[in-house]
Recover the amino acids of this structure.
């Protein structure tokens, strides 16, 4: 991912962050050389300086708040310890399904964009963190398309939102013009669902949280990068995959994110969807899965790909990355297989 430089002086640090965003460093493009592989990126680490907040570090590294907090739970959000090592969960299992256009995985709070293939180009994917609709304002799970692109959009808050603000003592006008007070930010992509947009924000600290009224928010620099790439009629698939299964070579990975509160009965400690994804992934190929570890992954929901099995493997244990057999139960905390993260 992006290289990070931490500056001690708060004014210099603010100027640096602005220059980094202004220079449009951009999200990493992951090449998909093997169509059967579905794990991209690497877990990385960095260190905090005196003036950094966890929100700053998340933003510069293309992460949402809950993504980074989940794997660094003891760090103070506003005052992380100086020079404290911080884990960056920048490895991803791609959502299962068609790799075309935009995929919005709502519980993961992450967008995946598969650019159209140009002549002689390789398949690739770019990913950005999201802010999503809070409970009661869910984004519907469906397929749709981009039907309009708008730079410097005005916001016309619907009656339901104006009523909510009125009751809270914070009345809204019928039209909010472009500018710093506009919650849509500088760019908006309208979906073929009445009232739903993918847009920027004037409150970037809400990325990686449930804060919107159902629309999809991106960091200002991310929507600025995505906007010119996305064409009208680009397909958009909105999905609900808190658990994702993928492969890299002969290794099988499971990545689990917290499900939305309203989906607790559907997903809580439920391996059914994981089993189905493994069957879909492996087809007729033999495989070996450490099921106790899979249960632990979906129980802990760290949001990090964990090696849970292999294709064409006949032994009882699961192989670690160095190829040696690992007695997972004897290890206790199994999530260290891939990440090196300790509880």
């Amino acid at each position: 991912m992006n290289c990070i430089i931490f500056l001690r002086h708060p004014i210099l640090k603010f100027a640096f962050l602005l220059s980094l965003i202004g220079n449009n460093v951009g999200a990493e493009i992951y090449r998909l050389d093997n169509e059967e592989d579905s794990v991209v990126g690497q877990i990385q680490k960095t260190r905090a300086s005196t003036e950094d907040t966890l929100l700053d570090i998340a933003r510069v590294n293309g992460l949402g708040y809950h993504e980074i907090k989940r794997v660094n739970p003891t760090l103070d959000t506003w005052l992380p310890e100086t020079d404290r090592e911080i884990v960056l969960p920048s490895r991803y299992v791609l959502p299962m399904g068609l790799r075309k256009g935009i995929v919005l995985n709502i519980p993961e709070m992450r967008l995946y964009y598969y650019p159209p293939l140009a002549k002689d180009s390789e398949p690739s994917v770019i990913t950005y963190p999201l802010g999503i609709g809070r409970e009661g304002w869910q984004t519907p799970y469906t397929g749709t398309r981009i039907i309009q692109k708008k730079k410097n959009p005005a916001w016309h808050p619907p009656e339901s939102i104006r009523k909510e603000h009125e009751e809270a003592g914070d009345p809204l006008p019928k039209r909010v013009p472009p500018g710093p007070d506009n919650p849509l930010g500088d760019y908006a992509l309208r979906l073929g669902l009445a009232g739903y947009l993918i847009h920027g924000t004037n409150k970037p600290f809400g990325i990686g949280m449930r804060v919107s009224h159902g629309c999809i928010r991106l960091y200002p620099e991310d929507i600025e990068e995505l906007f010119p790439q996305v064409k009208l009629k680009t397909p958009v698939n909105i999905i609900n995959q808190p658990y994702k299964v993928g492969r890299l070579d002969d290794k099988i990975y499971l990545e689990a994110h917290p499900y939305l509160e309203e989906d607790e009965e559907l997903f809580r400690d439920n391996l059914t969807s994981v089993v189905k994804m493994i069957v879909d992934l492996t087809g007729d190929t033999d495989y070996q899965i450490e099921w106790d570890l899979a249960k632990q992954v979906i129980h802990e929901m760290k949001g990090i790909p964990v090696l849970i099995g292999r294709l064409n493997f006949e032994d009882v244990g699961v192989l670690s990355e160095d190829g040696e057999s690992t007695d997972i139960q004897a290890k206790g905390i199994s999530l260290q297989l891939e990440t090196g993260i300790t509880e």
User: Anything to note?
Assistant: The chain has three domains: 10-93, 101-115+127-239, 243-337. The mean pLDDT is 82. The first strand starts at residue 29 and ends at 31. DSSP finds nine helices and 21 strands in the chain.
